[in-house]
Amino acid sequence: MEETEQKVGMLGSGSWATAMIKMLGDNQKKKKVLWWIRKEEDLNYVRTYKHNPTYLSAVELRIEPKNLFTDARDVIRQSDIVVLNTPSAYLKAALHGVGAEDFKGKLVVTAIKGIIPDENLIVGSYLSKVYGIPAENIVVIGGPCHAEEVSSEKLSYLTIAAKDTVKAERVASLLRNRYINTVLSTDVYGVEYGAVLKNIYALAGGICHGLGFGDNFMSVLVSNAIREMETCLTAIDPEADRDINASAYLGDLLVTAYSQFSRNRTFGHMIGKGYTVQSAQLEMNMVAEGYYASACIHNIIQQYDLELPICNMVYQILYNKQSANLEVNNLASKLS
Questions:
Q1: How many domains does the chain have?
Q2: Are 90 and 202 in a shared domain?
Q3: Cα(132)–Cα(70) distance, rounded to whole angstroms?
Q4: What is the DSSP letter of 89?
Q5: What is this structure's pTM?
Q6: Element (H, E) at 35
């Protein structure tokens, strides 16, 4: 029986979106890939040279020139599966002019590891609230998976979470290839919130490193962080089938906290070195999702009356402009 061609639309042209275009291109399953690129000059460059001029520029991309668009609505309407892969702070702008009817009947995948800042909602919840997308049609992609390593074809693992594992497998089968392994999960909220939290913890690790703390302290920080994450995820969704030591939680936390490619660790390191939030944001060419996530998780801490001292430390430094040195030393007395 002939395999049915699936149409996959990618919204976003940053490093992670570019890496996923490469994954899709290197997967042998029959499909049509459509790509929304915000800047017309970048689109024209990709069309001509098969490379993204701004992110992962050395990577050759297998995509048909006719399948590149600057109108997100065109991509969504023509796709069976829509992958949202912009920074969380830019998702609203990317979907400007898109209506609920455009998403009707689509499987919508969020590869965004962040919070919609002024909504204080994870992406899945935002999609349900604003566009009426049923929860069963939302799929979440988790790590651990840095775009830079994917682009150089280093063996990596993705966690694909959906309420229906058949739908999770439908997405996984399009991404899986010789250097990408996939794990299926039904813990949709846990995988998405876990991705948000690990960015905050990586930012905390960067702050500590910037202040001169070493690997011994970092290991204690991370071991406390995974326990904090479990506390938070259990409060949000206590009934989920979840192993906090799985790669989507502990694995993603470790790579984000320690890797040279982690933008959240880099952002935190700059804060620890004395940069203001604004100056650190200006110097970085990429968005550190942990900054926006910190405010949202602070609200969750208050809502559920949780004790999450690492998250609280990051919030106090970033939003209340407290001394990083004083806050970390105060935190150190609470770690075990």
A1: 2
A2: no
A3: 24
A4: G
A5: 0.93
A6: strand 31-36
